[in-house]
Design brief:
With about 500 residues, the protein is an alpha/beta fold. The chain has helices at about 5-20, 25-40, 55-70, 90-100, 110-120, 140-150, 225-230, 260-270, 285-290, 330-345, 355-360, 365, 380-385, 390-395, 395-405, 440-455, 460-480, 490-505; strands spanning about 5, 50-55, 75-80, 105, 125, 155-160, 180-185, 185-190, 200-205, 220-225, 245-250, 275-280, 295-300, 320-325, 350, 370-375, 410-415, 420, 425-430. It has 18 helices and 19 strands. A hairpin with a 5-residue loop joins strand 18 and strand 19. It catalyses: (6R)-NADPHX = (6S)-NADPHX; (6S)-NADHX + ADP = AMP + phosphate + NADH + H(+); (6R)-NADHX = (6S)-NADHX; (6S)-NADPHX + ADP = AMP + phosphate + NADPH + H(+).
């Protein structure tokens, strides 16, 4: 499923109509019928339905929906909130068809009239304004939206809730709070932003025949889900041995935080790493080893023995390294991070405290020839970029893409909608996971799964996407079967990994 900006969506429409030759009236018919088929699955013929339509294509879709439901004997009323002269082109064509089917249209934007229609209806279908909004609504639409939000029992939006921007980076808006939104053809970027996603309510993307794959400039943003996971996860060779599935090194942990690296190690092994070494402080090895007996251990804090430098690490033995979890923020830890980034000749995943140390000299990222993956949560990403967290959350696609391009790194920006970005700008949004993951240690577990996946895949982008999928899907299955959002722990997620493989493979 593609994710598009408003500009990209308009270009896809134009390409389909002008270059492929699909008539715009037919495209509007497809949209209205497709959305109608979804609407009939969540309402009944006993419901009183009022469809609010405006000018433009969104209003035209509303007229098709009205005609389709009317001819199926649903109780439909249409309230047109713009004067008749504003209904033109294809929207006028479909309004005429609706009227020819004995449908009726009321024309009013008066607040008192609007209030009557809203309070007398069981279902409001919002087809007033589509994806072209970039600022606050004007009157009378602002008041109409306010009345619907305050008094409607159930609201379904067509393509996007009226007043909501399709793009990121826009905060000054007023919009419908929909219970359901049926998004046409491609997911809009605002579906995955913390400040705009709640307006959609439940949502589903409805294909209508708009061309994407035949365009020269295919959008580089899409969602990653079950289909991708099934089709891209490498199959295990019956004749494989432990070295086949990667030799990984996980560096982190300290006296204060030994659990972080332990969770990373266990998650990596559960996710499929063939061999794993834990590089950690000498005085915590014994405690970690009791919880993760399958790993081997390497002492990485013996600075005196090595002349004040980080301990010798046999980098040539490893296929991938993850570091940063629980390692602390002192100078010794910083020297260790820089040592790994300067000397390791394999992919390196930087998480947690490792990101803090990278902030001291971000240029070290672009100097490496081997891949680097950074896995920040929003606070860490804001720190790296030196922007406020709120600003980052308003434009996470932009900032992730900018950081990846500037430093030539892979970025996994963690959150409700984790965004995976590669250096060339391609992006994916993970579709799994839930609020049970909002616990300490969840990121450490994800880092371990990423380590395992990078060692299995030849394609790092697919590895990162599949790691996020497994992490979130484990939490989803655990919540479904025997946990709640409240009690789920990071260690539970590790033990939930096998269920992901059994369920989806």
């Amino acid at each position: 499923m593609y994710i598009v900006t408003a500009k990209e969506m308009y270009e896809m429409d134009r390409h389909t109509i002008q270059e492929i030759g699909l008539d715009e009236r037919l495209l509007m018919e497809n949209a209205g019928r497709a959305v109608s088929s979804k609407i009939t699955g969540i309402i009944s013929k006993q419901n009183q339905i009022c469809i609010f339509v405006g000018s433009g294509n969104n209003g035209g879709d509303g007229f098709v929906i009205a005609r389709t439901l009317h001819t199926q004997n649903y109780n439909v009323t249409v309230l047109q909130i713009v004067p008749d002269e504003r209904i033109t082109g294809e929207a006028l064509y479909h309004k005429t068809l609706y009227l020819n089917c004995n449908g009726s249209v009321h024309v009013s934007s008066d607040a008192t009239e609007v209030d009557k229609f809203v309070t007398s209806s069981d279902v409001i279908i919002d087809a007033m304004i589509g994806i072209g909004v970039h600022d606050e609504l004007r009157e009378p639409v602002y008041t109409i939206v306010s009345i619907i939000n305050q008094k409607a029992d159930f609201v379904i939006s067509v393509d996007i809730p009226t007043g909501l921007p399709a793009d990121e980076g826009i905060t000054g808006f007023s919009a419908i709070h929909a219970d359901w939104t049926f998004v046409i053809e491609a997911a809009k970027m605002s579906l995955f932003l913390e400040h705009t996603a709640p307006y959609y309510g439940k949502w589903e993307v409805v294909p209508i025949g708009i061309s994407i794959n035949t365009m020269d400039d295919v959008p580089k943003k899409y969602t990653w889900g079950e289909h991708h996971f099934r089709s891209t996860l490498p199959k295990r060779d019956p004749y494989a041995h432990k070295g086949t599935h990667g030799k990984g090194l996980a560096i982190g942990g300290s006296v204060e935080m030994p659990g972080s690296i332990a969770m990373t190690a266990k998650a990596a092994l559960r996710a499929g790493a063939g061999l794993l070494t834990v590089g950690t402080a000498k005085n915590v090895i014994s405690s970690i080893a009791q919880t993760c007996i399958e790993a081997t251990y390497l002492m990485v804090d013996d600075h005196n023995e090595h002349g004040g430098k980080a301990a010798a690490i046999p980098f040539e033995r490893f296929d991938c390294i993850v570091m940063g979890m629980g390692m602390g923020r002192d100078k010794e830890a910083e020297r260790l991070v820089m040592h790994v980034l300067n000397e390791a000749n394999c992919p390196v995943i930087v998480d947690a405290d490792g990101l803090f140390h990278v902030k001291a000299d971000p240029s070290i990222l672009s100097k490496r020839s081997d891949p680097i993956i950074v896995t920040p949560h929003p606070g860490e990403m804001a720190m790296l970029l030196e922007v406020p967290i709120a600003e980052l959350l308003e434009k996470p696609f932009h900032y992730s893409r900018a950081f990846a391009a500037i430093h030539q790194v892979y970025v996994v920006l963690k959150g409700k909608h984790t965004i995976i970005t590669v250096p060339d700008g391609k992006q994916a949004v993970n579709q799994t996971g839930n609020q049970g993951l909002a616990k300490g240690g969840s990121g450490d577990v994800l880092s371990g799964i990423i380590l395992a996946m990078v060692m299995q895949h030849k394609n790092i982008f697919q590895a990162l996407c599949n790691a996020c999928f497994v992490h979130g899907a484990a939490a989803d299955l655990l919540i479904r079967d025997n946990h709640s959002y409240y009690d789920l722990l990071a260690t539970d997620v590790i033990e939930g990994i096998p269920a992901v493989y059994r369920t989806f493979l």
